[in-house]
Design goal:
- The protein is an alpha/beta fold and 574 residues long.
- The chain has four domains: 1-42, no CATH class; 45-201, 3-Layer(aba) Sandwich (Alpha-D-Glucose-1,6-Bisphosphate, Chain A, domain 3), CATH 3.40.120.10; 208-445, Alpha-D-Glucose-1,6-Bisphosphate, Chain A, domain 3 (3-Layer(aba) Sandwich), CATH 3.40.120.10; 447-570, TATA-Binding Protein (2-Layer Sandwich).
- It is built from 17 helices and 23 strands.
- Helix 5 links the parallel strand 2 (91-96) and strand 3.
- The radius of gyration is 24 Å and the shape is globular.
- The relative contact order is 0.09.
C-alpha cells in the first residue's frame, strides 16, 4: 500500500478530534486505513475560492465540500461582517440548488450565521442563483450565499458569496474575507443555531423576481402566440421560475421536456448538465423536431446559464455558442434603446477578455462604451458598481451567461430566456429568424467565429500539469500561429502587454489573473487560462473574416472552421 505523507496524515488525524462528528471521523479512519490516494486528494490543500466561488467534490477533508469547510467559510464571513458593520443588525439571504446535500448544507450555513446573531433569510426550497442575487437587494441584506456547483458533475457542490449590491464578492472584500477565514481553526465555528433568527423565504420574493424579469425583458413584440418554444431545466432549479416568467410575458406555446423537469442531483438523463454541451440538449432537440419548435432553451442546474438552439438557414436545429447568443441579445437590446432615443453617451455594455471581440464592434456601431473585464460575471457586476454614472444595458460572457439590466447582478438565465424568445418571436413575425439576425450582424460587423477547447486534468497531478502548460506558454511563447505573426501578448498575471514587434511593454490596469492572450497580424486571438471552478485548462479561439453577403455565409464559415482546426492541431490540443 502507498505510504501516506506525514503532513497529510497530520492534517487528517486532526479531523479525528471531538470537534468533528462521529460520521466524519469514521470516514477519515477508513481513508487512512484503505485509501491513501483519496486521503491525499482530500487533504493536500485547502479548497480555495475561484472565479465562481468555491467548488469541490463532497466528502471529508480540507480539500472537500462539507459542513466544516463551509462552516469555516461562514464563520469567517460572519466575523468580517461584524468587523466592518459593527453597529448594524446584519442580514443574509441563502439559496440552494438541486444538488445532493445542498439543502442540508444550506441549513448548516444558516445555523452558523444565526449562531453569530445574524438575521437569516433562507429560501424554503431550491431556487435559481439569479433569484438569490435579486433577493440580496430586495431584502436589503448585507450578503448572500448560494449553495451550488453550477454544471459540475454530481459529486460536486459549492458556495458562492454575494455582497450587498447583489454581485459576487470582488476585491478588496474577497481577499479580506479569505484572510478572515484562513485565521480560523475548525474548533471556532459556531454551529448552534438561534432558530428565532432564521426566517423562511417563499412566494413574495418569487413574485417580485418574476415581475422584475418580465419588466426587464418583455419588449411587447408581436408574434408571441406563433413562437413554439421547447424548454428544459436539465433536472435543475429553473423549472421553479422560467415557465412562470414566459407565461407572464404572454408565451402560450411552451413545451417542457418532462423527463428532465424534476430536480435531481444525479442528472440521470445527461452525461453533464451543461448547456454548452450538445449532448445535454439532445432530448430537447428531439422534442423540438416532434413539435416543430422555433427555439430550444436549456439551463444549467442553478439557472444562471442558458444554451440556445434555433433553426439555421436550412431549417435544421442548431446549437449556438455563448458568443453567438450574446451578440444577438446585445444587438437587440441596443436597438431597443436606440429606437426609444435612450442612448446619450451615458450607457455601457459589458463582456470579458476571453469572449468575442464582436462585442466591442457592437459598442462602436451604437456609440456605446463596451467595458471588458476578467472571466467571471462578478467583474461585469463590479463594472455597474464602479461606474454608477453610467447605465448598464446588458452584457455577457462566452460561457453561456448573460445579464439584462442591473436588477440582478449576476448572469441570469431566467431573464435571458425571455429575452431570447422576444428576439425569436419578433424575427419570425418579420419573416426572418434568430439565426438570420446573427448572419445580418456578421455582414454588418465582420464574421467572428469562436471555439473553446478544454483539457481536463484532475487531481494533484493534473493541477501541476496545468501549471506547467501555463509556464511553457509564458517562457516559450508562440511566434507565429497558422502562419500569421504574433504581434501582441497580454499576460494578466504579470499585468503587462508586450508588443512583439518592438519589444515594448505597457501595463494592464485590470486585476491580476492567470490568463495569457496571443494576438496575430491576421486578427486571430487565442486565450489560455486554468479554469477557476473545474480541473481544466481552457483555450479560447477567435478568428474572423469579412462577410460580403448572406449568400457567402456557408463558404466563409468553412474557412473559419478550417482555420481553427489548423490552429488546434498546430498547438497539439486535439
Amino acid at each position: 500500500m502507498t505510504k501516506i505523507d506525514a503532513k497529510i496524515l497530520e492534517k487528517a488525524t486532526a479531523w479525528l478530534s471531538p470537534n468533528f462528528d462521529s460520521d466524519t471521523q469514521t470516514k477519515i479512519q477508513q481513508l487512512i486505513a484503505n485509501d491513501p490516494k483519496e486521503l491525499t486528494e482530500s487533504f493536500y490543500t485547502n479548497l480555495a475560492f475561484g472565479t465562481g466561488g468555491m467548488r469541490g467534490v463532497m466528502g471529508p477533508g480540507t480539500n472537500r465540500i462539507n459542513k466544516y469547510t463551509l462552516g469555516k467559510n461562514t464563520q469567517g464571513l460572519s466575523n468580517y461582517l461584524k468587523k466592518i458593520y459593527p453597529n448594524e443588525q446584519l442580514k443574509v439571504a441563502i439559496a440552494y440548488d438541486c444538488r445532493h446535500n445542498s439543502k442540508s448544507l444550506a441549513q448548516t450555513v444558516a445555523n452558523v450565521f444565526s449562531a453569530n446573531d445574524i438575521q437569516v433569510y433562507l429560501f424554503s426550497d431550491l431556487r435559481t442563483t439569479p433569484e438569490l442575487s435579486f433577493a440580496v437587494k430586495y431584502l436589503d441584506c448585507h450578503t448572500g450565499i448560494v449553495l451550488t456547483a453550477s454544471h459540475n458533475p454530481p459529486e460536486y457542490n459549492g458556495y458562492k458569496v454575494y455582497w450587498s449590491d447583489g454581485g459576487q464578492i470582488v476585491p478588496p472584500e474577497d481577499d479580506e474575507i479569505i484572510q478572515e477565514i484562513n485565521q480560523l481553526d475548525f474548533a471556532q465555528i459556531k454551529f448552534e443555531a438561534k432558530d428565532d433568527l432564521i426566517h423562511l423565504v417563499d412566494t413574495e420574493v418569487d413574485e417580485a423576481f418574476a415581475n422584475a424579469s418580465v419588466a426587464n425583458a418583455d419588449f411587447k413584440v408581436s408574434g408571441k402566440d406563433n413562437l413554439k418554444i421547447v424548454f428544459t431545466s436539465l433536472h435543475g432549479t429553473s423549472i421553479t421560475m422560467i415557465p412562470d416568467v414566459l407565461k407572464k410575458a404572454g408565451y402560450t406555446n411552451v413545451h417542457i421536456v418532462e423527463e428532465q423537469a424534476k430536480p435531481d442531483g444525479d442528472f440521470p438523463t445527461v452525461v453533464s448538465p451543461n448547456p454548452e454541451e450538445p449532448e445535454a440538449l439532445k432530448m430537447a432537440m428531439q422534442l423540438a423536431e416532434k413539435v416543430h419548435a422555433d427555439i430550444v432553451v436549456g439551463t444549467d442546474p442553478d439557472g444562471d446559464r442558458l444554451g440556445i438552439a434555433v433553426r439555421n438557414l436550412e431549417g435544421e436545429m442548431m446549437l449556438l455558442n455563448g458568443n453567438q447568443t450574446m451578440v444577438v441579445m446585445t444587438d437587440f437590446l441596443l436597438q431597443q434603446w436606440k429606437n426609444n432615443n435612450k442612448i446619450n453617451g451615458k450607457q455601457f455594455i459589458g463582456s470579458t477578455i476571453v469572449s468575442t471581440p464582436m462585442m466591442e464592434k457592437l459598442g462602436e456601431a451604437y456609440n456605446v462604451e463596451c467595458k471588458i473585464g476578467l472571466t467571471g460575471f462578478k467583474w461585469i457586476a463590479k463594472m455597474i458598481k464602479d461606474f454608477p454614472e453610467l447605465e448598464f444595458i446588458g452584457g455577457g460572457e462566452e460561457s453561456f451567461g448573460f445579464m439584462t439590466g442591473d436588477f440582478v447582478r449576476d448572469k441570469d438565465a431566467v431573464t435571458a430566456t425571455l429575452l431570447a424568445c422576444e428576439i425569436a418571436a419578433q424575427a419570425k413575425a418579420n419573416g426572418s429568424s434568430f439565426f438570420a439576425s446573427l448572419i445580418d450582424m456578421y455582414v454588418a460587423h465582420g464574421f467572428y467565429k469562436e471555439k473553446l477547447v478544454s483539457l481536463v486534468k484532475k487531481g494533484m497531478d493534473g493541477a501541476a500539469e496545468i501549471k506547467q502548460i501555463m509556464v511553457d506558454l509564458r517562457e516559450n511563447p508562440l511566434t507565429t500561429i497558422d502562419g500569421s505573426k504574433v504581434i501582441r501578448i497580454e499576460d494578466y498575471q504579470a499585468s503587462t502587454t508586450t508588443d512583439m514587434e518592438h519589444g515594448t511593454k505597457t501595463p494592464i490596469s485590470i486585476p491580476k489573473s492567470n490568463v495569457l492572450i496571443y494576438y496575430t497580424a491576421d486578427g486571430t486571438k487565442i486565450a489560455a487560462r486554468p479554469s477557476g471552478t473545474e480541473p481544466k485548462i481552457k483555450f479560447y479561439f477567435s478568428v474572423n473574416l469579412p462577410l460580403a453577403n448572406k449568400a457567402d455565409f456557408a463558404t466563409v464559415e468553412k474557412q473559419l472552421d478550417a482555420k481553427i482546426d489548423r490552429i488546434v492541431q498546430e498547438m497539439k490540443l486535439n
